[in-house]
Amino acid sequence: MTKVLKAALVLAATAVVAAAIVAAGTAASQAKTVTIGWAYDGTGNMAAYDGPALATAKERIAQINKNKASTTKFKLLTCNTQGNKAPIAKACAAKLVGQGAQILMTTCDVDYAAPVVQYAIDRGKLTVAACIGTDQMGPKRFGAKGRLAFSFGNVAQDEGSAMAEYAWKRGWKSASLATDTVIVYFRNVVQAFKARYTQLGGKVMTMSDSDGFIHDPDGIDAEKLAWIQALKNVRRGRIEEQGSVEQVMGSPQTPTPAQHAALEKASELQEMTPARELTIGSDGRVTEVFDLPRKSVSFVKVTW
């Protein structure tokens, strides 16, 4: 672990403790213990992020509790979400709240954290992430109750904008963007780059996710970017799912009757290959190899 990373984790853990004191309010001076529940990922994509933050928090809490002059002690409860599986994560939140947790800590991605966050804020609990790096950890994602949701992480929007300004200053006037879709942070960095880069005068011609891409030689304008952001951040969809017709149209929010007709036509079953005869082998078997499109429903008709 680098000194910079360790320092950041110590800061996060210290800030968690400070947040706990504030959340406890005037009752903190009367109660001897503030209980923090931590729903962490011990096995999945977020384990490498959640583990160090949790370990640092445990160390800091132990230091505070050893201080005899401290009037407030802290109790830390934990629950492994086992790869942030939604049912297990929600069960962890319920378990921690049931055990008396006053504040909940959650994993380092807002999508993965959503079951825990929603359960906690619905019950009026302050919910904090050590390193969620997006502005979605709050009212933007969770509505009015999201005022109870916070993160000590960096902000993807700032990083994406900074990258765009760096590229523009280097004289790079056009760009093609590839998105790592594993967590919201990665997606938001790319979207922020696109927004700022376009403001500066740059042209983004291609954007992609893990399943497909959109290419526009004239540049992806603000309207198309808004659609992509809604697709990825709200609908949690894939670019490939929209099909070539929507890509050509720019995927309008309010399609015209003619566009509706074109979209409906594109969603109908289409023959992939002409019918052909196959020869059954001496063992009574026949083997046929063919490609099927991804993200679709395909039918194979066999007659004999």
Task: Describe the overall structure.
- The strands form 2 sheets. This protein has a 5-stranded parallel sheet with strand order 2-1-3-4-5, sandwiched between helices.
- Helix 2 links the parallel strand 1 and strand 2.
- The chain has 10 helices and 8 strands.
- It is α/β, with parallel strands linked by helices.
- Name the CATH class of the largest domain: Alpha Beta
**What letter string, H or E per element, gives the SSE order?**
HEHEHEHEHEHEHEEHHH
Distance between the termini: 65 Å
- Report helical residue fraction: 40-55%
Question: And the CATH topology of the largest domain?
Answer: Rossmann fold
**Strand content range:** 5-15%
Q: In angstroms, what is the radius of gyration?
A: 25 Å
The backbone outline, from C-alpha atoms, is: extended
What is the number of beta strands? 8
CATH superfamily of the largest domain: Response regulator
Largest sheet: 5 strands, parallel
Provide the residue-averaged pLDDT: 78
Write the layout of secondary structure elements.
Layout: H1 3-24, E1 33-40, H2 47-66, E2 73-80, H3 86-98, E3 103-106, H4 110-122, E4 126-129, H5 139-142, E5 149-151, H6 156-169, E6 174-178, H7 184-200, E7 203-208, E8 213-215, H8 222-234, H9 243-249, H10 257-266
Parallel strand pairs: 1-2, 1-3, 3-4, 4-5, 6-7
Antiparallel strand pairs: 7-8
Helix pairs in contact: 1-2, 3-4, 6-7, 7-8, 9-10
